[in-house]
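Researcher: Please predict.
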Amino acid sequence: MKKITIMAMLSFMIFGASAQTEKGLFFDANAGVRLGGETSSKSTVDPGFHLHGGVGYMFNNFIGVQGKLGFNTVKAVNVIESGVDDRSYLLNITAEAVLGVSELAGFGTEKFDLFVHAGGGISTIGNPGYKRRYEETREWNDKLFKGNDDSFNAIFGITPKYHLDENISFSLDIAYFMMFNQTYSLDREIGNTLVSGSKGMTNISLGITYKL
């Protein structure tokens, strides 16, 4: 009985130490490319720049939460009139759950882990050309960001991470980003076409994570 008690205490101490080292606050910074996005029939959209950063907290090896702020650039090219393009940007803020798939499935190593993340938030598409054209002739009466196209969003992504040490990791993040209630296509200055249904894009980025 004494041996069993000692073994149980040792197991508890080892598990507690492991959980204490795995949980904690972390910071992310990623940069990469945006692919896709809804345009009118008058335009095509080039790949754009993507940037996101965030802060999160892991409760243990398996599950955590994070908040992220993202930024995307959009360049739509007119397919009817040569040399005409339209530039806009997309800002979004999301709250997400993080799941350690490699730990749950048992294939994580000291240097490698695989995570998935999913959540939602709000987005705003700003089109400077469109706003400049109409800012002197109309009063913006839309909600949230005046003159922008605001919507809700959902995101699902997969993130393999390589751990340089206990605090620093490098990551590849592939995420599908979907917007709900988007009103206009991304090339609003060229096409200004109404959008029906949910529309999405893909972000692929490399980044670094610092864990406290």
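Model: The longest strand covers residues 63-78.
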